[in-house]
Every structure is written in C-alpha cells, then in structure tokens.
Structure to design on (578 residues):
C-alpha cells in the first residue's frame, strides 16, 4: 500500500503496533503455564479460565491460546455442562430471525416511524431488530434521546418482539457500522456519550486510532456494568473500499467481545431490480462504486460489486473473511435490510418535512399516504428478503446478543430454507464431543471428525409468492494458522481455504441430513457452509480449484434478487489437543 494512501486514510502505525504487541503479549502470558495465575491481569486470568473450562488446558503451552476461536461460548457451555438441545447446538433452544440495520424518520434519508418498521419486521417473521439511525451532528445532539421513547413504546406495543436501540456509527477513517446496547436505564446515556466522543462525523479529528478507542470504550461500559452488552458490526464493508484489512483486524482485536463481524450481505437488495421490472435499475446493495482516493489500493475492481447479493469480502472463497477466520479468531457475518425507503411502499414524508426541518427537529414528521406506489426505492422492509438467524438459549435481549457474540448465526435471502443446523463431531480414542456454529471443537489429535448438517427445506411461499428450492450445499474448509494474524495485517486471502464438497439437494424435501467425513484430526481447521438455488453461478473469484461454482458477480442495473438466493453459515473451528 502506498504512502499516499496511508496519509489519506488516516493510518496510525505506531498505535497499531503497540496495540498489536500488547495483544500478543497477553496471549503469550495466558498460554505460558510457568506464569502463575496471581501474575495475570484480571482479563488474562479470565481468558485462562475460559480455556480451562473448555477442556483445552493441555494445549496452552503449545501456543493454542493465540487462537481466539476458542470462544467464550465453548467455555461457558463446557463449564455449565449444557447438553446439545433439540435445535442442534450447545444450550440452544431457538433460532431467532432478525435485522441489525434499520432506519427511521430519525435518519436524514429515512422516513418511517419506529413502529412502522417494527410492525412490518414482525409481520415478515422477525423476532428481533435494531433501530440504527445515522450518527452525525444532528443525531448526536438530538437523535438518541428523541428516538428512545418511540422504541420504548414499540416494545410495549409489540411485546413479543425484541427491539434494540442502536445507531449507525460513522467509523472514523472508514465506513459505517451498527452499534447497539442491551436495553436498560443507561442505554441512552451510553449511546449518546459514544456518538459524541467517537463518531467520525462528530469528532474533530477522526482517525483509525479513534475507531479502536471507541470499540474499547464500549467494552469498558460493559465491564463497568453500565450496560449488560454492547456489540459492533461493520456495515457494507466493501462498498467503497475504505475498510482496509488491517483496520478490520484492529477493530476485531480491540475488543472481541464487542467487535464481532460485518455484513456478509448488505441491505438495499431491491436496488438491483431492472428499471423495466419496474425497479430502481441501480446496483444491488447500491454497490455500484469505484475506488476513491481513500480506498485501499489493493482491492480489485470486482470488490466494489456484490456477488449473488453478498459482499465480495464474504462471497470470495479464500478471500478476506476467510483470511480473518483462518487466524482462529471469531468474525461473523450478518444480513439485513438497511431499510430507509422501501420498494412498493405507498407512503411519503409529509409536506414540509425537508432537510432544514430535520436539522432543526432531529426527525421528520410521520409518513402519510402518497397516492402512488414507489417502484424506484432500493430497499425491502425488514424481514421481507434478508434474515440473520441467531441461536439463543431463550427469547431475550441478552440471549440474542450472546448468540451473536458467540457466532451462532446463519443468514439467508428470500426464505431459501426454513432451518439449518450444523454440528461437527469428533469420535475415537476414548472421547466424543460436538460443536456447532461459532464454536471451537477441541478434540484429541487422531480423532475422527465428521460434519453433520440438518436442513429443513422451504415448503411455504416467500414474500415474492413462490417456494424457493435449495439446489446445492457447499462445504468450505480452511487451515487455521494462529500466527498469521501478525504476519500481514493487510492480507485478504486464505490460500489453504477451498470448497471441498458439493451436495446436490434439488430433490430433497422436508428435513434431511447431510454428512461429510472431515478425516483424522491432525491440524487446526475450520468449516463453513453456503447453499444456493442454483440460478446464477460462476467460477469463484480465486479460480476453479478454489471454488468451482460460486455466486456470480451482480450486474449494475440488472440484478433481480429473487432469482439468486443463497444462505451462508458462520464457521466452526476444530482444534487438536493433547
């Protein structure tokens, strides 16, 4: 990357190096059994205890402590002795569908009331959602307080739906991101303080170091018990090419309990509908851009487009997402609506609701009947097309946030499937263990490992009034190298990751099971899944040997979302110990 790009993008290499060194030293201390518990910091001791609870104490001296893929979820479940539930995961009872990226009349480019969005989301099958109006000077001054009573009222009106308050963060020196906290007496105060101190459109000198500090500050609010939980996910990461690989790694490493992932598929999925459909005739996800002066220079032109509706960072097998998880550290994907103004809606802002009024009042007036159908908007209602499914022990705010942090997530478009459950099993040498999405299966070296996938085919029409058919499921496997995170912070490839199995599911109905032998456990690896309706496909971006039939690049002006459906799961790591 050029020096000019470093300057334009606000890079702070000294800060990055010191943070990275501190992070690495912490893991070395945790893994060095010659260092006593009393010599560890409270966070380091918690980390060591998590590893002990997970049953991988014997691996500490071997350097495994550097693998953050040994997740709190795995340790918590082991410590509590939870058995796999009927839904196929440790302690999981529910898969709860949701959307973490929704705008309202409190956004300068939105129009709907909170209740509008929440009622539609519930009607389209969502269990949870996050209101994320745009951060910025007006929102920082008025918006957080103004929207809260609307959210509280919607919670009371829809008491079977979990409605979080958040905001869309202008990440300093980068793109946007969802930030949200658990409901409680401090939710408004924490979000207001965060936005005023760390938003890139509000702070006087936003740079990469400020983004890292903002994530760490959120973690400190949880530690101080001001809020129970706080989470951050980067939104539309490849849209403008300004989320460089090392920035994403810095966010993740700043506080992995807060920074948990990015949008695997952006919102604005209706934007690609051809004008003759009729639709917006734009780019799917509004991914119709090209490199800017502050873009990461190494990103190729193809990265500025979606592929089968998914962000290039996610859709490329062996690409940036894989390079992150191949480091043994959790980094999850999501899918959402990014709903601002919705296709086929019949409402508009009321007369007099102009930008000047928004800047004065911090919100637009309630929408009114427009007398026409909007066929040029780029968004779908929450739940109408995109869904993020979160594995949770209960139907609670904390349960959803815990499931998201633990990576217990899979995403789909267009209701492609009803249910996906993934289990990785290890047997042999006197041990038997299982793990599901987001977790790390620690098993004895030499164990036999098997992937078991249970899928329930779709049997009811989606919101475009047809029953989708899942035609193929792919298994993607990659080698884990816990040391690679420090070798090249701007890497966006994982050379050892590839599609290793493809199942034809075109004749499968009901609930069916797919099994794949992952072999004898000798080295750490991970697996993830994707599935497709098979309507659009091409050789993957990194070649046929890596991905023989992946999603096709979306064409600007002609990318109908309903005939190009995919699901993706988060990974499961497998780790040899003893």
């Amino acid at each position: 990357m050029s020096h000019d790009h470093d300057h334009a993008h606000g890079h702070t290499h000294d800060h990055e190096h010191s943070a990275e060194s501190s992070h690495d030293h912490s893991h070395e201390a945790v893994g060095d059994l010659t260092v006593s518990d009393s010599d560890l910091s409270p966070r380091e001791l918690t980390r060591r205890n998590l590893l002990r609870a997970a049953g991988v104490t014997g691996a500490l001296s071997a350097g495994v402590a550097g693998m953050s893929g040994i997740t709190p979820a795995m340790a918590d479940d082991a410590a509590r002795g939870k058995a796999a539930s009927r839904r196929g995961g440790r302690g999981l009872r529910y898969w709860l569908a949701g959307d973490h990226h929704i705008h309202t009349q409190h956004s300068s480019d939105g129009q709907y009331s909170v209740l509008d969005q929440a009622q539609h989301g519930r009607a389209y099958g969502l269990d949870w959602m996050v209101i994320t109006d745009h951060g910025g000077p007006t929102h920082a001054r008025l918006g957080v307080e103004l929207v809260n009573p609307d959210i509280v009222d919607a919670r009371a009106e829809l008491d079977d739906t979990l409605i979080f308050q958040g905001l869309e963060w202008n990440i300093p020196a980068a793109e946007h991101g969802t930030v949200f906290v658990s409901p409680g007496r401090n939710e408004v105060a924490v979000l207001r303080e965060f936005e005023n101190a760390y938003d890139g459109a509000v702070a006087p000198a936003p740079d990469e170091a400020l983004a890292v500090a903002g994530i760490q500050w959120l973690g400190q609010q949880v530690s101080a018990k001001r809020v129970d939980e706080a989470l951050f996910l980067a939104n539309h990461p490849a849209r403008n090419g300004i989320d460089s690989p090392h920035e994403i790694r810095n966010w993740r490493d700043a506080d992995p309990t807060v920074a948990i992932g990015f949008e695997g598929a952006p919102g604005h999925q209706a934007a690609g509908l051809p004008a003759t459909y009729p639709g917006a005739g734009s780019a799917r996800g509004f991914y119709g851009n090209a490199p800017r002066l502050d873009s990461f220079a190494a990103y190729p032109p193809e990265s500025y487009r979606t592929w089968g509706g998914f962000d290039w960072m996610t859709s490329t097998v062996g690409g940036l997402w894989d390079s992150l998880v191949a480091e043994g550290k959790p980094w999850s994907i999501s899918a959402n609506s990014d709903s601002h103004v919705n296709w086929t809606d019949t409402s508009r802002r009321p007369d007099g609701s102009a930008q000047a009024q928004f800047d004065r009042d911090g919100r637009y007036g309630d929408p009114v009947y427009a007398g026409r159908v909007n066929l040029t908007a780029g968004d779908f209602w929450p739940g109408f097309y995109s869904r993020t499914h979160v594995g949770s022990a209960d139907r609670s705010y904390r349960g959803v946030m815990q499931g998201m942090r633990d990576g217990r997530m899979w995403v789909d478009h267009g209701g492609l499937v009803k249910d996906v459950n993934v289990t990785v099993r290890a047997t042999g040498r006197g041990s038997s263990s299982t793990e599901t999405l987001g977790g790390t299966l620690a098993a004895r070296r030499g164990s036999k490992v098997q992937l078991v996938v249970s899928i329930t085919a779709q049997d009811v029409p989606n919101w475009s009034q047809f029953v989708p058919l899942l035609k193929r499921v792919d298994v993607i496997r990659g080698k884990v190298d816990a040391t690679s995170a420090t070798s090249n912070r701007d890497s966006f490839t994982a050379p050892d990751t590839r599609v290793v199995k493809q199942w034809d599911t075109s004749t499968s109905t009901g609930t069916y099971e797919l099994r794949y032998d992952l072999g004898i456990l000798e080295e750490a690896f991970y697996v993830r899944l994707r599935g497709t309706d098979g309507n659009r496909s091409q050789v993957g971006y990194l070649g046929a040997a890596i991905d023989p039939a992946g999603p096709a690049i979306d064409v600007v002006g002609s990318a109908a979302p309903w005939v190009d459906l995919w699901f993706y799961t988060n990974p499961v790591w497998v780790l040899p110990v003893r």
